[in-house]
What does this fold into?
Amino acid sequence: MEKIFDSHSHYNDKSFRGDLDRVLRHIQREGVGYAVNVGYDLESSKQALEMARANDFMYCAVGIHPDSAPDALDDGVMNELRILAQNEKTVAIGESGLDYHYDDSPDREIQKLAFIRHIELANEVGKPLIIHTRDAMKDTIDILTRHPLNSGVIHCYSGSRESAKQLVNMGFYIGFTGVITFKNARRALESMKVVPKDRLLIETDCPYMAPEPFRGKRCDSSLLNYTIQKMADELNMTKEEAIEMTAENAKRLFKIK
It folds into this structure.
């Protein structure tokens, strides 16, 4: 039987520092066979790769989150990411993208430039880009239209059905989190149902986005058992079918044999 593939996690987050080894043992006992540990700045990207190299079931992505977008305008930082990207355990660039949610976020033009630099790096090294977009879907699609990306995933999808269809037509995968289990998840579920089954990914974004009934608590990949069951129910599949489908999709995107 196929194991669960967590396509977006942050085990490099400080909330796991006290009990990381215990958590990693626990999630594997609970059926998790793969996890992509995602960087959000240069230091966390280095940590993500170090952890991926130390754990057979773990892979990593290296990149600069839009919250730290000015860092991506530094050629030295991008060169270091380029070096990290050469490692066989690095399966993606990111996460990068646009986040307009908070008033104190970096300047939008700087975020756009940082996003474009990540697109260029992903295309250069031949690896997919993990894209973060929050309250910025129009600009995200505009940039991806003007700067085509070879492959990528819109992670933690929060957009409309129409945007999901447009992104799928552009070749992207779409990742869904524990948000689909929330009582107010109608928009996310409607979007999920228009995504072709061969483009769906499941993710935690841990330590965030814990599904019901753990909402608000620290999330880890074992809780994907709740998220994947909800996806299966909504798509009229068995849980085992949903696990196999999302794992096959992630392996295809990240080129994992």
Q: What stands out?
A: The chain has a mean pLDDT of 97. The longest strand covers residues 90-99.
